[in-house]
Amino acid sequence: MVTLLPDVFSRWVTDRLSRKPSGWMGRLVYKDRSVQNVTPLVLEWIRPAERDSYCEIGQGGGLLLREMLRYVGKAAALDHSRDMVELASANNRAAIEEGRLRIDQGDALNLPWPDGSFTCGASVAVLLFLSEPERFMQEVARVLAPGGRFVLITPGRRSLDEGRKAGAAHGIFLHGSRFFSEEEIGGLVRGAGLELTGIHWMRHLLASGIGKPINGISRV
């Protein structure tokens, strides 16, 4: 039983702080969690404008979402944690009341939005917890309009290798998660008929710029 305790504890922490943030711990972490480290890159790659419709998959506390709403006309978001839906709704109350934003609880592998609904979107630290990353990317491709832009940010495999060498305790917070390489991300993107428009490392995070071909046919 003693040998099982670290595994049980790391799974418990991961579930409440990362995989499905919930309870007072999840709310505390995501209430004022800074996204300044990813926001500039998302803005640079998406270049949002008022004519855009933006989606965010796994919005957490909704702080990146709030920043994007400064630029886009409308937005929608989805998270499988009810606590995060409530927190993000509180952080974006004005946009919801104005009819510019809707936040739903749901499954990233079964997005509730019609085909071609959005001109841009983003997902941060979600892919690593999904059981079917290929299906997720297909769903992203489905809801993006032709010419749409998407930014996918997830802890990369290089960061996991470096963390292990340094003795970092990745497992405590990311139990059961999957770290992707640049090649794996490229394969997922192209497999969904999308184009990889950029790759950038942000410390431990692997950021990928993604585009949906206007003619529906990838050039790759």
How would you describe this structure to a colleague?
- The chain is of the alpha/beta class.
- It is 40% helix and 23% strand.
- The protein is built from 10 helices and 7 strands.
- The chain has helices at residues 5-19, 23-31, 39-46, 63-68, 82-91, 93-97, 133-143, 157-166, 170-173, 182-191; strands at 53-57, 74-79, 101-105, 118-124, 144-155, 195-202, 205-211.
- The protein has a 7-stranded mixed β-sheet with strand order 3-2-1-4-5-7-6, with helices on both faces.
- The longest helix is centred in the N-terminal third of the chain and has 15 residues, at 5-19.
- It starts with a helix and ends in a 9-residue tail after the last strand.
Summarize the structure.
The chain has 10 helices and 7 strands. The protein has helices spanning 5-19, 23-31, 39-46, 63-68, 82-91, 93-97, 133-143, 157-166, 170-173, 182-191; strands at 53-57, 74-79, 101-105, 118-124, 144-155, 195-202, 205-211.
